[in-house]
């Protein structure tokens, strides 16, 4: 999906929000048109200049309760290569 999103000429930014923990991937184009990437965990701000707003992780996860980080089960599987 990342390649498809980045191929859209008019797309300036997008975020991917985890549903089971406070974890957000932020992708945006810089002033030269190059894509940049940032991961925010637990706290942080996400500027969205195209919309004229800044979101915080508190804004995104308002009303959500998660177990403390040490009590979370983290399983990450490697994606199968496309072929």
Spatial arrangement of strands, main beta sheet: 1-2-3
Q: What structural class should be given to the helix and strand makeup? A: mainly beta
Radius of gyration: 15 Å
Q: Could you report the average pLDDT, rounded to the nearest whole number?
A: 83
Descriptors:
single chain; 83 residues; mainly beta; 3-stranded antiparallel β-sheet; two-stranded antiparallel sheet; 5 strands; 11% helix; elongated
Would you mind describing this structure in some detail?
This protein has helices at 2-6, 57-60; strands spanning 13-17, 23-29, 35-41, 45-48, 53-56. The protein is mainly beta and 83 residues long. It is elongated, with a radius of gyration of 15 Å. It is 11% helix and 33% strand. A hairpin with a 5-residue loop joins β2 and β3 (35-41). Strands 1-2-3 form a three-stranded antiparallel sheet, with no helix packed on it. It has a two-stranded antiparallel ribbon with strand order 4-5. It starts with a helix and ends in a 23-residue tail after the last helix.
Task: Summarize the SSE layout with pairings.
Blueprint: H1 2-6, E1 13-17, E2 23-29, E3 35-41, E4 45-48, E5 53-56, H2 57-60
């Amino acid at each position: 999906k990342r390649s498809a999103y980045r191929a859209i000429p008019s797309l300036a930014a997008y975020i991917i929000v985890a549903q089971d923990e406070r974890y957000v991937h932020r992708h945006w184009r810089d002033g030269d048109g190059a894509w940049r990437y940032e991961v925010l965990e637990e706290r942080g701000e996400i500027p969205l200049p195209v919309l004229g707003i800044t979101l915080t992780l508190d804004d995104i996860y308002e009303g959500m309760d998660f177990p403390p980080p040490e009590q979370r089960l983290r399983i990450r599987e490697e994606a199968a290569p496309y072929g």
